[in-house]
Specification:
This protein is an alpha+beta fold. The chain has a domain of 110 residues: Alpha-D-Glucose-1,6-Bisphosphate, Chain A, domain 4 (2-Layer Sandwich). An eight-stranded antiparallel β-sheet has the order 1-2-8-7-6-5-4-3. It starts with a strand and ends with a helix. Belongs to the AHA1 family.
């Protein structure tokens, strides 16, 4: 079923995605924990991700880039701030330069991912919190909302592949 709803709340400075999957919570958790699985869905189909580092521990960091249809690269980073496996993940998310250094001209966002049983499957709620209404609008204009919908839309096929 994948993304069932999105909600942009300018007053709360949040963008929320609710997705449902026909897999147990532990299996859905693996698409965040395992960098090889993560890179198969983090980024829309035309901008696939490559995770060069994914230290999935509190205080750990991730470094990735997405490659566009013409070979251009967009770099990003995460800093893991909380993990309650397999139900909750929090991380700061920002843009990076080609050396993996955080871009200081753009504020980072903070993401909170919660996974909970929903019938025989899992409901995943991802809430991104922004530093300002301007940042929220800027990232939506850059395609974040549609890009995340497309990205999360790839998780069902990944889960259908089995335990691998």
């Amino acid at each position: 079923m994948t993304v069932t709803s999105t909600h942009k709340d300018v007053d709360a400075l949040t963008l929320t995605f609710v997705a449902e999957f026909d897999a147990p919570v532990g299996r859905v958790w693996q698409v965040w924990e395992d960098p090889r699985r993560l890179e198969r869905w983090w980024g829309p189909p035309t901008w696939p991700a490559t995770f060069e580092r994914h230290d999935f521990t509190v205080g750990g960091s991730s470094l990735y880039f997405m490659t566009g249809p013409n070979g251009e690269k967009a770099y990003g980073w995460w800093r893991i701030t909380a993990i309650d496996a397999p139900h909750r993940l929090e991380f700061d998310d920002g843009f990076a330069d080609e050396n993996g250094e955080p871009v200081t001209t753009m504020e980072s966002t903070h993401a909170v991912v919660t996974l909970e049983p929903a019938g025989t499957g899992t409901r995943m709620v991802t809430v991104s919190t922004f530093a300002s209404a301007e940042q929220l609008e800027q990232l939506v204009k850059m395609g974040m909302e549609e890009g995340m919908r497309q990205s999360m839309g790839q998780i069902d096929a990944l889960l259908a592949e089995g335990e691998a």
